[in-house]
Amino acid sequence: MVIVNALGLVSVALALVLAPLLQGVIHRTKAFFAGRQGAPVWQPYYDLARLLGKGAVYSRTTTWIFVAGPVVGLASLLVALTLMPLGGASAFLAFPGDLVLMLYLLGLLRFVTVLAALDTGSSFEGMGASREVTFAALAEPPVFLALAILARKTGALSLSGIMSGISPTLWVTAGPMLALLATALFFVFLAENARIPVDDPNTHLELTMIHEVMVLDHSGPDFAMILYGASLKLWLLGSLVVGLVLPAGLPWFLAWPAAVGGLLLLAVLTGVVESTMARLRLHKVPQFLVGALIMTLLALVLGAR
Amino acid sequence: MNHGFLIAAVIFFPLLGGLVGRMAGFHAGLARLLAATGAVLGGLAGALLSGDILWHGSRTVVTWPWFGTGYTLTLAVDPLSAFFLLPVSILTAMAAIYGAQYLGFHHHTGPAGVGAAGAASGVAGRGMVDPANVGLFASLLQTGMVLVLLAHDGLGFLFSWEVMSMAAFFLIALDDANAENRSAAWTYLLATHIGSAFLVLFFLFLGQRAGGLTFAELARATLSERAQALLFLAALVGFGAKAGFMPLHVWLPDAHPAAPSHLSAVMSGVMIKTGIYGLLRALTVLGAPPVWWGWALVVIGVVSGIMGMVFALAERDVKRLLAYSSVENIGIIAIGLGLGLCGRATAQPAMAVAGFAGSLLHVLNHAMFKGLLFLGAGTLAVTTGTRELDRLGGLFRRMPATAGACLAGVVAIGGLPPLNGFLSEFLIYVAAFQGLLGGQGFAWLPSCLAIGGLALIGGLAAACFAKVYGIAFLGEPRTQGAAEAAPPPALMSFAMITLAMLCGGLAVVVPVAVPGLAPVLSVLVPIDGQTLLLELLRGGALLRGVLGVAILLVLLVGFLAAVRRRLLAGREIGQTPTWDCGYAAPTPRMSYTGSSFTQPLNDLFEPLRAGTVDRPALSGLFPAPGRLATHPADSFVGRLYTPLFTGVETLCQRLRWVQAGRLQVYVLYIAVTLLVLLGWNLW
């Protein structure tokens, strides 16, 4: 039942090495649109290295929950990566229902991040945590339903099975449905990764932040783990969108470069979205996420045949 | 093991403990000790009995003639009752251990001990409750639940059902100096008897068709399609009222918080599950289910789950919040049952087995973590003097053992890996996903509804329990009561830590033990034993996959923690106040409260709730100080039950002229009755 595919470790390794690059590409794209030179695409790596070399400062209010937050969060992302296929190759671990486990591991990441934020007793971090759980709860149904529709269409119940079942033929027979699902998943990808139009990672005002404000008090290696985790999450959910768009069945020497290329393109697209539109007002965000849900429901109707 | 002895022990030990404890009521400590000992011995016997039956997949029948009546009481333990007996035994024993010291708090802290703040916020028990009575009714509740599970004929079942329900009524009404508790008890009494009325109908109608009342006879009844449908609906209402299916849940959030916390744990953790047990038992005697039964349960489950969470999110009273979360978890169990029934009706064994197995496991898991959290809530209430979340805070430092145990509880109830709550939800998801693949026509739609519903429920539950834990245990204490709270005494901590360890232990045991559910499931999914076992083995393999990933997670956490420690070794570690954006004089009153934490979600679901807000009128450039108060409310009460019962009352008022209150009129009634009877007899 549980399939272990050693080749899937290559996907995990690619993610571990290349994930921060996506952030760099997004920044570079935004700099291009703003007419700036911008930081080098490797800047996220320098940031991580610098943070890992530092000491840390802790609030007197916090307990070990605050320390455990980044550790457990990064660990759950690493485990989730072992379940995520890339470029048509099966994931390291694959079994029917693994998609539920993958999404619930992201839930665990969110839960510990929120607890760590509340552990500081700061009203700003409480505010961010409150928004995070609200939007996350609304983002769950579209993702689960999208994966359910794909499972029904491909006849597979594991992420790897679903991804390898999205063939060019399926795009021909059910193109509109897949396009709707890809758009819905892209919406969720933006929301879950704290990107514009849901959250602005570069904002300087604590009152308007969501994800950034939850981690205000973390520093040094703890903060490095959080930033690295954010890159991995971008990569993980990006793989979901790219896997949907990229037809399966390419030979391996094409599939992996194509997948990585797809992820980099997705990063460019994210940069374009961030450069060309403003952040939504907070009470509009639920409408954005319900919009994603409606798209999956439309896809459900289209795929009902 | 001699089953007859164990059955006697599981019934009579608690009863004996309760009765002798009541007689020793002159000495509070002795009374508590006796009652707790009886409950623990009964629980131990129950666990042994349940384990033995489940291990061998056997059944035991005991008949006790009811002298002089010609009625023979049939008690039987089959795998289905044994499965439900397990959580009942474990949780009642743990609650009794906890209660032995918890009731001491009640006894010693009089009204003055709790203080004005506590009295205002409604701490259960203000010195009015006699611990000897608590012990007596708790033992009756335990015996009643055990008898419900063991009864094997309609009459015995209804009798046990009443014993259990009435014992719970007295526990809810214990602290009857409080008007809210009295009202909660009456609501409960009404709800439970409406349920019982449907159950009486169910058993009498079915018994009349079957020509006998034992479950074996009932199962042989031949039923038309319509009779089968009516019986199912009667069972759904009768058992659903006990389980807390929406909209029959309204008694639950009032009643469970009113009882002493360790008995709230028993009620929310296992008593409401007897409703699920009854429904399953009814399904075993009603013949092959049509597919709409499955649809109905999935819809009920999704509604209960989502609405339960919507109401829970708005609550500030920890115990009411937990009670609403029980409605939510019953919803998850109902979704599993519904998927199981759909799978059975559409001949998809994989879906049926995963659905029923997931829902049974959720019964067990929920008993552990909900019991744990209610004990935790009780600890918060007696150590800080309030159950109001927004008055707590920072308790992690004050009571690390309680905080650690409750952390396991919130992770488990949030359905998050790696604890046990995830495993049962995972199996229910698997059932739903299996249902997507097969089936004719629209047979896959319940699966979609279940998946979407479970996803939203999961997201909301995580939000809700992040709030409970973050606001109560983390941050800074918001009141003096929270700042000065002392850790609970040893037995209370012991009970909570044991339940927390069971949450972790079940996460390891369940994946291995799932094939052992075969004898339990064989009565629910009548397929051949080979297929059943095969499907269970498949489910077990998936759960072992999850377990493997969970172990990987734990190892990685250890590894990353070691890396972090190594990196920080020898470096400078600073201590500061929390970053507050430069504000110079922060106070705990500025930190986020539970109400503010869930405000976005509450606003979002406002149309579904019926909460009210008293806003201060602000006018002018420098408005005077004002107070804002929010009152969470259950929209089913305001929009459904209040109008309904007001209407019934108005109708009854119209008939009041019958009761004129004059003797002559009553004599006239008697005369008319006699005349009519005479005429009828002659004719």
TrEMBL record, chain A:
GO cellular component, one term: plasma membrane
Membrane-crossing segments per the record: 6-26, 64-95, 101-121, 133-151, 171-191, 223-246, 252-273, 285-304
Localization annotation: Membrane
Keywords from the named record: Membrane, Transmembrane, Transmembrane helix
Protein's name in the database: Hydrogenase 4 subunit C
InterPro entries linked to this entry: ComplexI_Subunit1 (IPR052561), NADH_UbQ_OxRdtase_su1/FPO (IPR001694)
Membrane topology of the entry: Multi-pass membrane protein
Native source species: Candidatus Ozemobacter sibiricus
Keyword Transmembrane: yes
UniProtKB/TrEMBL annotation, chain B:
GO biological process: ATP synthesis coupled electron transport
Membrane topology: Multi-pass membrane protein
Subcellular location: Cell membrane; Membrane
Major subcellular location class: membrane
Pfam annotation, one family: Proton_antipo_M
Gene Ontology molecular functions: NADH dehydrogenase (ubiquinone) activity; oxidoreductase activity
Organism domain of life: Bacteria
Keyword Lipoprotein: no
Keywords: Cell membrane, Membrane, Oxidoreductase, Transmembrane, Transmembrane helix
InterPro entries noted in UniProt: ComplexI-like_HydComp (IPR052175), NADH_UbQ_OxRdtase (IPR003918), ND/Mrp_TM (IPR001750)
Stretches that traverse the bilayer: 6-26, 33-55, 75-98, 134-151, 157-174, 186-207, 227-251, 292-314, 321-341, 371-389, 401-419, 451-474, 494-521, 541-563, 663-682
Keyword 4Fe-4S: no
Positions of the NADH:quinone oxidoreductase/Mrp antiporter transmembrane domain: 152-434
A GO CC annotation given for this chain: plasma membrane
The protein, known as: Hydrogenase 4 subunit B
